[in-house]
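PROTEIN DESIGN WORKSHEET
SECTION A - STRUCTURE
LENGTH: 178
TOKENS:
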């Protein structure tokens, strides 16, 4: 670095320009200076829009191969939100029901459920039991990961398939067995 600096000093002096080899100048970089012009906000915005049109569009999820972990993670979040929303809505409904003339007591709900056709009972039980069981078993899966177990690709898939199997069995028991 020191030799290069000394060679550049020699090259810039008027007397040494003829004696310094041309290779010294080839190693230096030159950049053109940027010019600026005054623009209004509207012109600057239109330039920005034109630049953005030239940028490539992110491919997002369409270029990736779907994987079990994606589906299970998404489904875990969806079931969590659905279960939480159900609890909050039922709680709010239970508080408001007496003022609205509705009956949300256990006896009224049991009598209403008993009066439904079997297909409606199965559909309602499925809508409640499946997300609950899935979210519970997937929560246990996440707790297992928190203990630094089953974090390999093989372990993640093994626990994923176990959650699917346990969800099927558990939801089936709650829907048809109870």
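SECTION B - SEQUENCE
RESIDUE ASSIGNMENT:
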């Amino acid at each position: 670095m020191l030799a290069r600096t000394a060679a550049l000093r020699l090259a810039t002096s008027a007397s040494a320009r003829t004696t310094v080899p041309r290779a010294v100048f080839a190693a230096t970089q030159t950049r053109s200076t940027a010019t600026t012009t005054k623009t209004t906000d509207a012109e600057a915005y239109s330039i920005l829009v034109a630049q953005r049109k030239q940028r490539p569009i992110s491919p997002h999820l369409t270029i990736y191969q779907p994987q079990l972990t994606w589906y299970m993670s998404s489904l875990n979040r969806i079931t969590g939100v659905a279960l939480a929303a159900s609890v909050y809505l039922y709680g709010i409904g239970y508080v408001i029901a007496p003022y609205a003339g509705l009956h949300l007591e256990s006896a009224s709900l049991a009598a209403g459920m008993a009066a439904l056709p079997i297909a409606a009972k199965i559909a309602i039980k499925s809508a409640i039991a499946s997300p609950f069981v899935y979210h519970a078993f997937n929560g246990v899966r996440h707790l297992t990961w928190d203990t630094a177990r089953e974090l390999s690709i093989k372990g993640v898939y093994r626990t994923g398939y176990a959650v699917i199997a346990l969800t099927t069995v558990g939801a089936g028991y709650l829907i048809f067995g109870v």
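SECTION C - NOTES
The CA atoms of residues 3 and 105 lie 91 Å apart.
DSSP finds seven helices and no strands in the chain.
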